């Protein structure tokens, strides 16, 4: 994955989160939980991009 693609994806995620936080009326605790989940997902995704060996052994559900 190129650096340009990585930056574009992070900007799109940031803009989408800004739009959700600004224009969708939600309770503050729900917004906080949503933000934490998105940040954790992005960090895990970035780890899998830069350290692909570290997360390949993690499986959810039955092994194939």
List keywords for this structure.
mainly alpha; flat; 64 residues; single chain
Can you characterise this structure?
By secondary structure, the chain is mainly α. The chain is 69% helix and 0% strand. The chain is built from 2 helices and no strands. The two termini are 27 Å apart.
Structural class determined from secondary elements: mainly alpha
What can be said about the biggest beta sheet?
Answer: none
Low-confidence parts, pLDDT < 50 over ≥5 residues? none
Average pLDDT works out at 86
Please estimate the helix content: 55-70%
Write down how many β-strands occur, each being a DSSP E stretch of 2 or more residues.
0
Structure annotation, total helices: 2
Tell me the Rg in angstroms: 15 Å
Quote the distance from N terminus to C terminus: 27 Å
Q: Using the alpha-carbon principal axes, give the shape.
A: flat
Succession of helices and strands: HH
Assembly state: single chain
What proportion of the residues form beta strands (DSSP E)? Answer: under 5%
């Amino acid at each position: 994955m190129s650096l340009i693609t990585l930056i574009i994806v992070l900007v799109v995620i940031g803009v989408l989160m800004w739009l959700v936080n600004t224009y969708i009326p939600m309770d503050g605790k729900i917004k906080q939980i949503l933000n934490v989940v998105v940040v954790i997902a992005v960090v895990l995704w970035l780890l899998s991009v830069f350290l692909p060996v570290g997360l390949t052994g993690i499986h959810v559900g039955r092994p194939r």
